Amino acid sequence: MAAAGVGGFEVVVWGARGTLPGCGPNQVAFGTETCCVEMRVGGRRLIFDAGTGIVTLGREMAAEEVRDIDIFFSHAHYDHIMGLPFFVPFYKPGTRVSVSLGHMLDGRLAGELVADLMRAPFLPIGPKIFQAEIEYMTFKPGDVLEPGPGIAVKTARLNHPNGAVGFRVEYGGRAAAYVTDTEHVPGQTDKAVLSLFRNADVVFYDTSYTEAEMAKFKGFGHSSWEEGVRLAKAANTKRLVLFHHSHMRDDDALAAIEREAKAAFAGAVVGRTGMRFALEPVPEPARPRREAERVR
């Protein structure tokens, strides 16, 4: 895949599953990889989460000789970080990778978390083996990050065990949000989540469960596709991507959910590996003729 040019805004899904990669022949139609979404924004490459989907993405980035990369963690549960040690650009001299997180409730920094992930006896290598220039960034939910000119990454705390952060990327008058993992309270609207959804062109939302399953999994930190639809309608969201699929859900079940979600909200779609969204910049309003003549 060629990189988006300066001024572009393209979103690519590299993994949409939660908890575990797809297991068996009945979990392949929507991709087998866990959470990883890339946003190619204004000539920069932003990555949200490092599930197993980041492995294939890293291979492509290495082949393209991408030298400047920003990774943002929603949180550090296994399905969101298990691909990180296998991200090829980490091992490429001359590459700069920024790793940012803001969900930690115990005060640990981003670099400490990566070192804790890559340690014996769980892995035989540690982050000292990386040959790229790594910059570790720790932020607080609510901060607005600026990874590049004209790019705003807004953040908000989510309702999830051990903490999690949702993101909203704004550029060129367009917006894409990555909102996983979070649990809604029935009958209440999470205002922080709603703000991430507001007028967005595309939103990735945690839809691990159906509404009927929520009571059974109360406290697990996940939401439903029905809540996603409610938020999308309330926030005037254009496209809702059902994300973080339950590891118990097979392809037929996901296809059935997609049909139900589309009937409730035409802009709904089940996330799958390889899915792409090209967000065209909002054209500037035409200037009045007299003003244009004065400029000339």
TrEMBL record:
InterPro entries: Metallo-B-lactamas, RibonucZ/Hydroxyglut_hydro. Residues 44-245 form the Metallo-beta-lactamase domain. One of its GO terms (molecular function) is hydrolase activity. Keywords: Hydrolase. The keyword Zinc does not apply. Pfam families: Lactamase_B_2 (PF12706). This is MBL fold metallo-hydrolase. It comes from Plantimonas leprariae.
